[in-house]
Structures are given as structure tokens and as C-alpha cells.
Amino acid sequence: MDFLRKAIESIPQAAGNPLAFILFLATLIAWVWIAQRSRRLKLLLSRLEQVPTTKRAELIRAEMGVVLPEKISPEQWIRSRKHQYFLVGYLALCFLVLGLVGIISWVAIRSPSAELHQIRVGIDSLQTKLDEVTRGVGQLSIGVADVSGQVTAKQPETKQLRELTDQLESLVKQFATQIGTASLVKDDEHRIRRAEAAIQNNRGLLHLEQGNVTEALQEFGKAIGTYTTLVQQDGRQELEDVLARSLHNRGVILFNSDQKPAEAAKDLADAASIYARLVQKRGRTDLGKELAQSQAARTQVESAPANNGITGAIVTETSGVSAIVVTQLQGVPELDEVHVVKAGTSVHTSYYPVQTTKKLGTPMLVEPGVYDIFGKSADGIRITLVKDIELKAEQRIRVNPDALVSRVVVSPLALEGFPVLADTFVIKAGTDREQTVSPLQRTTKFGTPMLVEPGKYDILCTPAKGSHFTVKRDVELKAGETVRIDTDRLAAALVCRDPKMEGLELKVIYVVEAGTVLQGSFRVMQRTDGFEKPMMVFAGGLYDIVLKPVDGAPVKIAKNVLAKAGQLTIVCAK
After folding, report:
1. Cα separation, 328 vs 359, whole angstroms
2. Are residues 52 and 74 in the same domain?
């Protein structure tokens, strides 16, 4: 039935096929010839009646050029020839019908269906909307280390961007399913490749919103590669402004996150060159703002000094006296005060600062020398901003902490059935959780940034009831980068169902690592004093569940239980 429906839909398209026209023309010529010959036979038959019987064969030879055998009468020959003409006409008609059926079948199989046409229309419509939304998000700016904040500030646009990108990705998958293994025509190939590039570009912006700078750069790289091919090799010049925007954004991210300044400068130069050509030679005056932004960003990148390996973080200036200026952080949390200390001083011990100020952005007069600079937040936690910075005579150093520190944002846990979290904190990666844990940062305000030095860390949370647990391990933070930890996606919990065993008096339920031997003291990963209470653990680990009755030794009631991220795992269900 599906083929028949497609065949019927393909009739108008088949009618325009050159082969169908040739078949129709050949059949028409055959029928005209048959009609002419039949009319001539009819006239000949009427004349035969007026000619003597002995001369009728001679008349047929003269009129039709045929010598009749003696055993066939003229009347029989005429009837036989008429039947031949009718047969030829019938065969021509059959050939026409079979040919048309073949053409319609071929068109139905080879040509796109109505669903494909609708998908095409949907992809083109979404592309137009996405172009408008992407321009609404705008280009990123140089000098703001937290590039993710620039995207996050555009909440309505990024929400729409995410929804439209998901829809476009779904349509591209539907198109691939519909087309199957058939080869794409050129227009469809360009349409799909452009859609894939748009998806990659937008995923880059959305990764950036989550603080995932590395993933954002990867997506922008893929998009730029596809756009470049479409523009340079396939001649799709209408995509040049989109290519320029992607180049600009990647260049800004590379520079602001202190990665590959030479590549950042090249990307911004290429973006400015494309914009200039579009504005000056093609009259695209609507891109004047983007041109100015790319040119300004290129100038800033090429003129920015590099100190301590961190581009744009530290600027040295000539001054009458030696001084250090530390600017305030953009956004939350702010620094409450800044300390200048002798190089090599530990931030975690008591010390005497060489100079201090609570007025960030104002100069601190310091003698020439080598120093470390610490920042202190309002809650009293200190963080190292710069180590081993050399201040020379008559030199002023400006420090931009946004380009030096990292931020961690842990989202609140909102999964149904999970316990309330009391706080979250950051420790050095690989720290044994059974040891006395000294958090490098801690907060009870989920969703607000915690300042830490660049490095590798484990992120832990503490439920309102129970022990702290690891949410994510080995989180690598780079200078100027914000990493967001989605607890709803990463958290895991185990729930021990009540076995309804008569006479059982429970003292405690333990969660231990799989294979733990229950002799003497053993390492407990989590505990609770009752059934049906979730116990938070690190996702992906294997655990054994231990019941400790009021009277008696602890007993394992479940082994090798896998804790799944974002799920409550039920054990001991009866």
C-alpha cells in the first residue's frame, strides 16, 4: 500500500519525465500510422466491389504493392491486414502502459516522498530561525575570562537556541532514515552539511554556557571545518558571515581561556577579513558591528603581553613607583581583600602580608621583589592568584583575577526520592575520603560559584543526613574556566527495601565497597539507620549492602550492586 501511495504521488513528476514523453510520442505516431493504413484499406475494400473478381488481385498490387498468393482472396487479405494493424496498435498501447508503469515505479523509488519534502521545508525553516537567534546571542567579547557568563547572560536566546537545535538535529536524523542508502543530490547534501555545521556551532555555544570550554572548542572546530568546505569548495558564499562568526567566537574563547594565543589571533584576523569583504564589496552594512568587534578583538589579542604563561591576565606598565593593582572579579563571588606575600608562602598557614587592601582596583605600593598574591573571599577562604611574580623598580603590575582563577558551580539536587544536600566542597583529586578532609572551597549555596586555583579536583557533597560522598572525580580546571557540575545527572543513591522480616531489629545499614571483608573494622562508604532511606554514593561504583541487627554480627544481604548515575537503585527488594 505504501508503494502504491508513493506511485500515485509520483504520477505528476513522472509525467514530466523525458522518457514518458518519448513513449507517448511513439505510441501516437504508431496509432496515426495505423489509422491512416486502416482508412486506406477501407477505401480499397469499397473499390473492390466495383472491380471484376479476376482483376481485384491486380488492384491490390497496384494500390498496396503486395502480390497476393493464389490461395488467398483479396477480401481475406484485407481482413487479415486489418487484424495485423489492430494487433500492432494494441501492442503499442501495452508498451506505452508498461513503460509508464516502469517510469512511475522508478520515480516512486528514486524520488523523495512527501515526508522528505516536509523534512526539507522544516530544516530550511529552522535554519532561518537559528540564524536569527544566533545573531541575537551575538559575538563573544575579549577581556572577560568567564566567557561562559557571556552566553549565560542571554538566557532567553540560549533557551530558544537549545530547543531549535534539538529540533534541527531530530529532523536531520529523520532525513537520514528516510533517504536510507540512496545517494544525496547536491542541494540535499549542502542542506544536511549546513544543518550539521549549525548544530555543531550551537552545541559549542551551549557547552560554553555550561562552562565546558574544551568541548565548546571542539564543536566550534567541527563547525568551522564544515562551513569552510561549503564556502570555499562548494561556493556557498551566503554562509560566509556564519563562518566569520564561528571563527570570531573560537578566537575569543582561545584567548580568554589562555589557550593558543597565536591561533586566537589568526581566527580573529580571518573573521575580520571575511566581514570586511562582505561589508565593503557586497554591501552587507548590517555586519558593520560584527566587523568592528572582530577588528577590535584582533588588535587586543595581538597587542596583549604574555606573563607567567597566562595571556591577558597580567599587564606590566611603567610607573613612578613600584605597585601592584588587583582588579575585582566579575560576577560572584567577589574578593573581599587581597594580600601580597613573599614568594613561597603557603596560602593555608598563618603569614604576615607585605601589603594588603580591601579596595580592589587601587594600587598597593610594594618594594621591588618576587611575590605571591592571595585573594580572600567574604567567607574567609583564601586562594592563590599569582605565584612568583617579579615586580621591578618603577613598574606597576595589573592583575586580572578573572583570567587566573577557576570556578566550580554545583547545581542543587532536584531528583525525586533523593535526600536534601547540605553542602558541597572541593578537595584535591585523589584525596582519601576517609582521611581528615580539608576542603579548598565549600559552600551551602548550590548554584553559586566556588573559586579555586587551576588544577585537578574531586567534587563532594554532604546530604542533610549521612556522610559526604563524591559526585565527580578528577575534574580538571583551567585558568579562567568555569565548570558546572550537574548533580541531577551525576548523583547516585542506593535504597534498601524493608524485607518485612518478623522479629528483625535493625541497628544500621552500611554500604561498603564490593568485596569488603566483614572482620574487625571495615571501611564504610555510607550508612543509614533505617530501611527505605536513600544512601548517596559515587556513581559507577560496585557496592555490597550490609545489615547490622541490634543483636548479632553484620551480614551482607546484597553484593556487587552497581550505583547508576541519576538513579535510585533498589536493593533487598522482597
Report:
1. 9
2. yes
